[in-house]
Amino acid sequence: MAAVAALTGLLALTACDRAAQSPEAPAASKSAAFKHDLPEDVSGYYLPTEEVRIDNWRLHHVFMGQVPDFIAWQGGERPAGFAPVMIEFEDMVGPPLESGNRRRLRLIPATYDVTESRVRVQALSGGLGAVSFDGKLDQGALATARRNLGDQGVVLKGTLKVGNRTFNNVSMRWWAGD
């Protein structure tokens, strides 16, 4: 029930370059809603190895920032449109933007718990409803991917829930980004 209340109270969504800032949570609930235990850097983009599609929306990636991003977020620094963990979807049906890119939904977390072996994040989207990802992070595969500057191997695998749909065994590879 606490997770549902947190999801309801902390709606944040960005599309393309527009950003919405998460409402501030009371100090006591901030520490409970946002947790991390990361002795190692896990930052980067986690891209699905197979398409995961919900109507016209395709899962584009899960982003994780560096340890200082987690510390700043948990300390109350909340820049608009950015969080240390984000889930991003891409509109596969709508017309491309002027830049040629597709419209995207960037979900800012209502809660997260990230460790060196587990990634749990929950968000709420006006268009998709409640979204959550619960996955296992393979540190050995991540180290290999980092050494190879991106590898096709699976480094993150878990369950994605979008509204009333569940996608089991969603596999993701790591990419450093531009």
The main sheet comes to: 12 strands, mixed
Query: What percent of residues are in strands?
Result: 35-45%
Total count of helical runs of at least 4 residues: 4
What is the string of SSEs from the N terminus onward?
HEHEEEEHEEEEEHEE
N- to C-terminal distance: 39 Å
Number of strands: 12
- Please state the CA-atom Rg, rounded to the nearest Å: 15 Å
Oligomer: single chain
Helix content: 10-25%
What does this structure look like?
The protein is of the alpha+beta class. The protein is 18% helix and 41% strand. The chain is built from four helices and twelve strands. It has helices at residues 2-9, 27-33, 67-74, 139-147, and strands at residues 13-15, 34-37, 44-48, 53-54, 57-64, 85-91, 104-107, 111-115, 118-125, 129-137, 156-162, 165-175. Strands 1, 2, 3, 4, 5, 6, 7, 8, 9, 10, 11 and 12 form a twelve-stranded mixed sheet that branches. It starts with a helix and ends with a strand. The model is unreliable at 1-29 (pLDDT under 50).
Brief description of this entry?
The chain is of the alpha+beta class and 178 residues long. The protein contains four helices and twelve strands; from the N terminus they run αβαββββαβββββαββ.
